[in-house]
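Per your request, structure below.
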């Protein structure tokens, strides 16, 4: 194809795009948020967008108009069942996915299918789209190791299960014309464990202008965490690090998000003697989240399994310095000593020392970090992400946006 990426007011033909995944709003996680922002941004640009996702409540298949990211779109909700080891995750019925995918594709007749997960819905859509000659794009947000905490595998069986998951991923993503993932490190990771090559690194992106940095001197010390409250996030390390800080700093902790680890973390805060300074907000409304991003002094991300971390980008767009684990993709957002500090996973003393460094900085020193966060996150504006996916949908070669500070690649 030779069409240019569609922009509002351009003459390029709008596309009919079908986005499918195993998680989508109202689910709260990085993959669901990316799919919502992508779908909403494409609708805003004039494309016809359909979404296929599990129904978040019991009931039969249903097609309805839903609003996500302020945009109305057609969402095909499939009958789903709870994965009971997980606190909220639901999957479409795997033994019906081929039939449902075929039905929806024949009804919608999309120009392109973009799947966000290979597990159930992506697998069905990719197979049926390939049979019909429909262009397929696949994006990976999945790490098998993360799924294991909600799967009763142990010992050698766990290793075999992870290997089987990677093989399944390779088969499904192998049906796609192009494969993407949020960062270059995540792309290298996917290529390493599958036979895929030429994986694009394309940032999930965010609406940078939606965030409000506070550049005036602070009058309190607040460390913020935003995300799923689950084991791989290692939030316990943040609480232990805060407990080791000088009491005169009066550091407050704000945790926005929920998950199966919350009761254990609440107990830990009591055991550490800091429960009166730790606030668990749960799933908070958007206006509350934005206020806390503006209010906080520093954002903490102790997770060791981030393929990108939209939450960290949101913090950076709010002008926050970041203290995070030196693991997976975080070093590409956190430039040590420039917009925050990295610590080695599990090093509680190192974590505490870096938090202390920020809380004891002068206002002028803190401003340097805040301004650098704003500068780094500019590369992750959602419009660059949308431009790139539009080009991929049309079959055009693209320059991957700078997703992680390592430059761009043409495919």
């Amino acid at each position: 194809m030779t069409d240019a990426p569609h922009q509002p007011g351009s003459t390029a033909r709008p596309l009919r795009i079908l986005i499918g995944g195993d998680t989508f709003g109202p689910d709260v996680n990085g993959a669901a948020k990316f799919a919502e922002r992508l779908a909403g941004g494409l609708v805003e640009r004039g494309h016809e967008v359909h979404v296929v996702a599990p129904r978040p409540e019991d009931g039969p298949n249903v097609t309805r108009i839903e609003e996500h990211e302020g945009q109305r779109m057609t969402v095909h909700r499939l009958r789903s069942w709870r994965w009971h080891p997980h606190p909220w995750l639901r999957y479409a019925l795997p033994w019906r996915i081929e039939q449902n995918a075929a039905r929806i594709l024949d009804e919608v007749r999309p120009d392109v299918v973009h799947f966000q997960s290979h597990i159930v819905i992506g697998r069905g859509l990719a197979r049926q789209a390939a049979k019909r000659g429909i262009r397929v794009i696949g994006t990976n947000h999945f790490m098998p190791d993360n799924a294991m905490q909600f799967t009763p595998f142990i010992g050698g069986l766990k290793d075999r299960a992870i290997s089987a998951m990677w093989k399944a991923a390779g088969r499904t993503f192998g049906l796609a014309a192009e494969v993407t993932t949020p960062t270059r490190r995540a792309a290298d990771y996917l290529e390493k464990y599958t036979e895929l090559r030429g994986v694009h690194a394309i940032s999930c992106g965010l609406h940078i202008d939606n965030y409000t940095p506070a550049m005036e001197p602070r009058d309190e010390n607040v460390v913020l965490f935003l995300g799923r409250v689950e084991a791989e996030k290692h939030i316990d390390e943040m609480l232990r690090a805060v407990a080791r800080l000088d009491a005169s700093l009066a550091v407050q902790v704000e945790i926005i998000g929920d998950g199966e680890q919350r009761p254990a973390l609440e107990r830990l805060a009591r055991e550490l003697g800091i429960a009166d300074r730790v606030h668990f907000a749960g799933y908070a409304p958007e206006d509350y989240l934005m206020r806390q991003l503006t209010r906080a002094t520093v954002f903490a991300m102790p997770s060791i399994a981030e393929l990108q971390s939209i939450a960290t980008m949101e913090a950076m767009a709010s002008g926050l310095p970041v203290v995070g684990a030196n693991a997976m993709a975080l070093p590409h957002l956190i430039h040590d000593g420039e917009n925050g500090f990295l610590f080695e996973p599990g090093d509680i003393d190192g974590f505490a020392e870096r938090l202390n460094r920020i809380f004891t900085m002068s206002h002028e020193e803190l401003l340097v970090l805040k301004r650098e966060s704003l500068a780094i996150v500019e590369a992750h504006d959602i419009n660059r992400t949308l431009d790139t996916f539009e080009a991929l949908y049309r079959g055009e070669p693209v320059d991957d946006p700078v997703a992680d500070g390592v430059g761009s690649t043409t495919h």
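The longest helix spans residues 155-173.

Regards,
D.
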